[in-house]
Design goal:
The chain is an alpha/beta fold. The chain is built from 24 helices and 21 strands.
Length: 714
């Protein structure tokens, strides 16, 4: 070796030396320890590569586990010592300069892969041995038959030299002969076996059909059977075996003896139990994981028609803040403490707590009275989380939101139950958190529908499922139609026509509002051009103006101005043909950067309307800095004017707003006009234009054109 002792190869050899010293005492090999160490060096190099590779490959760890079997390290203690050695020394000697926390996490995954490879290779080796056992069984049976009829000496040679346990009993079950291997399995004293009856060796874990198979064999109805069976040793410990029992017949073909072949599988069973535990429990908290929880939930839901269940789905409020501010190690310690507290809340029969992942936990209760028990369980969980948790010298207040689902078993599947609990948990979280809510089928249906609409939005735009209706804007002075507000609708294949109040917030949330808003602007301007072409020359009101709503997200989109200019130029329209409506709440506290696109559009001649005026802070002084030319007064101010006499307070408020707007050279439009009394009052107060069902409901483009044409003719 030319590498320095402290170099990578030197550290690798040091790791291999430690490893060989740990497992050599429990390895069945004729090699010396230095020779055995040389066999481990390439395996150590594969572990180092798996630890340092950019993308983790579990196959490396599995290959090392399988290679241990090939080097005759078949004792489970060799696996246990190997895992301990990897955990303690792999990162230390083979970790390089990488982050220690990531390397230790990678090391843990390598250990799991190594154990899996070891177990798989051990199973394959065992399968090979079992085939040898089967061949030995046939040989033994043949040898016994030949010994009974020909050569006792040959039978004894096979019987006593076999590596597996062999016993012979008569048809009554009395044990007549045992070999040395079977004696060793049961503690080393032949007197503990010879003369006993096989029927005495019952065990609570026996499968129901084991003794049925035994009875069929001694009656001569079957030639052999093979089962997995447990026995009690004289010291009280349990011996697990693969047991094969065959019927031996005499020269006339009549049943005469039983031949039992036993393979000790106790260590392999313990290893499988350990691997099963690791596969069904969370590595961080020790709680059952998602896999085991779903097994228990599915079992509870299939328990019978009178059974009930209750489920609490917990998500910690603000856990991401802990990870971001204190680090993931602190977050992990917090999760461990939360898991301990939750475990103490579910100690009654039929209750369990599991970690689904991240900061999500579930608690399950079963029994006849889960309607009461699940509420009590949720209350215990909230109380358990009330006390602060100390992490890294800080006391952290833990809050959680819980969704509760309770009901009879058999009505829903596990996935549906968990989805309902998840939806309910988010409903509790949106209500402020630190609380629990009961599942509501109607709320679940709304959430599922909302999710379905969200996922269907992009395709709906591509398939042309959206259309626009227009509501007239009427001049209060002469009653003429001056324009219309464009209102987008969604013709859903299943739900029919859906209003913007249901899908616009979803489009805002997903970002689809930008392409959808552009489509609405394009369609509205195309329609405005068609109206202009059909408007009689010299009409008093002039071309119709179209009002198009802008969402807050569209205001911040960098292409707002260029898109608007492109659409107007493509349709050959003057900027005055368009009015963009922006809600008052979207402009509260707006800085110059946000207002700059609106100012540019206003300077070009596009009207800007402040929609829903009066629903925000109504900062009247703020109007001077906004590039608006129209105030759209919210309908809440005019509802008191629907009938005579009008509400005097509403009259004063509207009169003041109109006076202020006109003094700032702003036009006033009123929404929601539904009666002639309203229209008359608003005209007297000096409002400029209005829209509402009193004039016309939103409708197709031709409806608006007919109204405008009738005004022009009259």
């Amino acid at each position: 070796m030319s590498a320095e002792p402290d170099g990578p190869e030197g550290r690798l050899r040091r790791f291999a030396t430690i490893w060989s010293r740990a497992i050599f005492p429990v390895t069945a090999t004729s090699l010396t320890r230095p020779e055995f160490e040389l066999q481990l060096v390439p395996l150590a190099r594969r572990l180092r590569d798996a630890l340092q590779e950019r993308v983790f490959d579990a196959a490396q760890g599995k290959a090392v586990g399988a290679a241990l079997i090939d080097t005759h390290c078949t004792d489970p203690e060799a696996l246990s010592r190997t895992l301990d050695c990897v955990e303690a020394y792999l990162v230390l000697y083979c970790g390089g300069e990488g982050p220690r926390e990531e390397l230790r996490a990678r090391s843990a995954r390598i250990q799991h892969a190594l154990a899996a490879g070891f177990a798989q290779a051990l199973r394959e080796r065992t399968r090979t041995e079992q085939e040898a056992i089967s061949r030995a069984a046939l040989s033994a049976r043949s040898a016994v038959a030949e010994a009974l009829h020909a050569s006792e000496a040959r039978f004894r040679a096979v019987f006593h030299g076999a590596a597996i346990g062999i016993g012979i009993a008569d048809l009554d079950g009395t044990i007549l002969e045992v070999n040395d291997a079977l004696v060793r399995m049961f503690g080393g004293l032949e007197s503990n076996l010879r003369g006993r009856n096989a029927a005495e060796w019952t065990h609570p874990d026996d499968s129901p059909h084991v003794w049925k198979l035994y009875e069929e064999l001694v009656r001569g109805e079957r030639e052999h059977y093979r089962v997995e069976k447990a026995f009690y040793r004289p010291d009280g410990t349990v011996l697990w075996t693969n047991l094969t029992v065959s019927l031996l017949r005499d020269a006339d073909g009549l049943p005469q003896y039983q031949l039992a072949l036993m393979e000790d599988t106790t260590e392999r069973r313990l290893l499988n139990l350990r691997l099963r535990y690791e596969a069904t429990h969370d590595a961080l908290t020790g709680l059952p994981n998602r896999t085991l929880f779903f097994e228990r939930l599915e079992k509870a839901l299939a328990a019978g028609e009178n059974a009930r269940f209750g489920l609490c789905y917990l998500d910690l409020d603000g856990f991401k803040t802990v990870n971001d501010s204190l680090g993931h190690a602190a977050g992990d310690r917090l999760l461990v403490e939360v898991a301990d507290r939750l475990q103490s809340c579910a100690t009654a029969p039929g209750e369990m707590v599991a970690r689904l992942g991240g900061d999500e936990f579930v608690a399950l209760t079963t029994g006849p009275d889960t309607e009461t028990e699940v509420d009590e369980l949720a209350g215990r969980i909230m109380n358990a989380l009330a006390a602060p948790i100390r992490v890294e010298g800080r006391e952290l207040t833990v809050r959680g939101s819980i969704g509760i689902v309770e009901g009879p078993a058999g009505e829903r599947g596990a996935a549906d139950v968990l989805r309902s609990a998840d939806i309910t948990m988010y409903r509790a979280k949106s209500a402020g958190g630190n609380r629990y809510e009961l599942a509501d089928p109607e709320a679940d249906a709304r959430a599922i529908t909302r999710h379905g609409l969200t996922t269907a939005l992009p395709a709906a735009l591509e398939r042309g499922e959206f259309f626009i209706e227009y509501q007239p804007l009427v001049h209060l002075g002469d009653g003429s139609v001056r324009g219309a507000e464009a209102l987008v609708r969604w013709l859903h294949p299943q739900h029919g026509v859906i209003g913007p109040d249901r899908f616009i917030p979803l489009a805002e949330h997903t970002g689809l509002i930008v392409p959808l808003g552009r489509w609405v602007l394009e369609e509205s301007m195309r329609q405005a051009r068609l109206w202009e072409a059909r408007t009689p020359v010299g009409a008093a009101a002039g071309p119709l103006r179209v009002n198009v709503n802008l969402s807050p997200m569209q205001l911040t989109h960098p292409g707002l101005v260029s898109d608007t200019v492109d659409i107007l130029e493509r349709e050959g329209l003057e900027p005055g043909s368009l009015c963009l409506e922006v809600t008052e709440s979207a402009l509260i506290g707006a800085d110059d950067d946000l207002l700059k696109p609106l100012r540019r559009l206003a300077e070009m001649g596009v009207d800007i309307a402040l929609d829903d005026f009066g629903t925000g802070y109504s900062n009247l002084a703020n109007l001077r800095r906004l590039p608006v030319s129209v105030l759209k007064l919210d309908r809440s101010f005019t509802q008191g004017m629907q009938h005579f006499p009008a509400d005097p307070v509403d009259l004063k408020i509207v009169e003041g707003i109109v006076s202020l707007a006109h003094s700032l050279d702003l036009a006033v439009t009123v929404e929601g006009v539904e009666t002639g009394a309203q229209a008359d009052q608003l005209r007297e107060l000096g409002c400029d234009t209005a829209q509402g069902w009193y004039y016309a409901r939103p409708g197709p483009p031709d409806q608006l054109h007919d109204l405008a044409l009738a005004d022009a003719i009259s």
